[in-house]
Amino acid sequence: MKILIINGSPRKKNTWAMVKRAKSILGEAEFEEVQLMKEKIPMCNGCFKCIMESEENCPHHDQINTILEKLRNADGLIIASPVYAMNVTALLKNFFDHTAYLYHRPEFFEKKALVFVSTAGAGQNDVAKYIDENLRHWGFNKVYKAAIACGGKEHLETKEIDKASEKFKKDIESNKLHSPKFMDILFYNVWRAMALTEDPIKADAEYWKSTDLVSHDFAPVVKLNPIKKIFAKIMFFIFKRVMK
Ligand SMILES: Cc1cc2nc3c(=O)[nH]c(=O)nc-3n(C[C@H](O)[C@H](O)[C@H](O)COP(=O)(O)O)c2cc1C
After folding, report:
1. In angstroms, what is the span from residue 89 Cα to ligand 1's centroid?
2. Where are the domains of the chain?
3. At a CB cut-off of 8 Å and minimum separation 6, what does 185 contact?
4. Rg (the chain; Cα; Å)
5. For the chain, how far is it from start to end, CA to CA, in angstroms?
6. Nearest to residue 80, comparing CAs of 166, 18, 159?
């Protein structure tokens, strides 16, 4: 089992302790670490090139794609951030900004993630939810979360970390993909319909057509039950009309 770890904390302390605990539970897995602090990724300059033209035209493409390539080759992702001013760290937010084009062109339909958030006292659940949402927009199949407040505590509370890590491990070992949530189906069909408008974003149209995702209610590796299929078809029909 290959696990990519992306650490959004500038240091290896409270949040890293959660990652370390998960590593001990995941046992024999092979881990690769990306310490965002060391990557020195310049700030996203808002040029829109990734979204409108191609992610390859991002001035920081090599750095971003190197990390995404590691993710493509991994069975699962552990992603961690402390709460900074009630959000993820700027390091992780900057990474997410550079990957915003993935909202338009989701690709990680077979990936599962384990999210760790630590905080002094507040914001941990909202921040974990934010990371979860971001990954789902990338196409992620399943996201497990553990979010803890460690202010004033000497010892790490391990119950939530252990539970999430064990579920994550079992899930990856099962090789099964989960049925998507209705919101995931809805967003998939928003971008799918957008790629088919008369004047689409060219990079989106090219991606959806070249992958043939455009012909499917949802990524074909993931099975939909009849109700979700009907829901996907209705959503696609509505969004196509709205965008016209
Ligand atoms: C710049 C900064 C901003 C922070 N903002 C918050 C916050 O909004 N709410 C909170 O409860 N803790 C906040 N904290 C505390 C950290 O979230 C907490 O100590 C966390 O466990 C640190 O993780 P680390 O050891 O991985 O850096 C902040 C800490 C720093 C350095």
Report:
1. 9
2. 2-174, 182-243
3. 217, 218, 224, 228, 231, 232, 235
4. 18
5. 45
6. 18
CB-based contacts of 113, cutoff 8 Å, min separation 6: 76, 77, 78, 79, 132, 135, 140, 142, 143, 144, 168
Instruction: Tell me, in angstroms, the distance from the centre of ligand 1 to residue 125's CA.
Output: 14
Dihedral sign of CA atoms 8, 14, 15, 20 in order: positive
Instruction: Give ligand 1 pocket residues (Cβ under 6 A).
Output: 9, 11, 13-16, 82-86, 118-123, 150
2-174: CATH topology? Rossmann fold (3.40.50)
* Alpha-helix runs per DSSP H in the chain: 14-26, 36-39, 49-52, 61-72, 90-98, 101-104, 124-137, 159-174, 182-194, 202-210, 226-243
d(CA 223, ligand 1 centre) in Å: 40
b/e map 144-178, b = 16+ CB within 10 Å:
bbbbbbbeeeeeeebeebeebbeebbebbeeeebe
Ligand 1 atom with the smallest distance to the CA of 122 is: 11
Helices (H), 105-158: 124-137
Q: What is the residue-level pLDDT of the chain in tens, covering all 244 positions?
A: 999 999 999 999 999 999 999 999 999 999 999 999 999 999 999 999 999 999 999 999 999 999 999 999 999 999 999 999 999 999 999 999 999 999 999 999 999 999 999 999 999 999 999 999 999 999 999 999 999 999 878 788 899 999 999 999 999 999 999 999 999 999 999 999 999 999 999 999 999 999 999 999 999 999 999 999 999 999 999 999 998 8
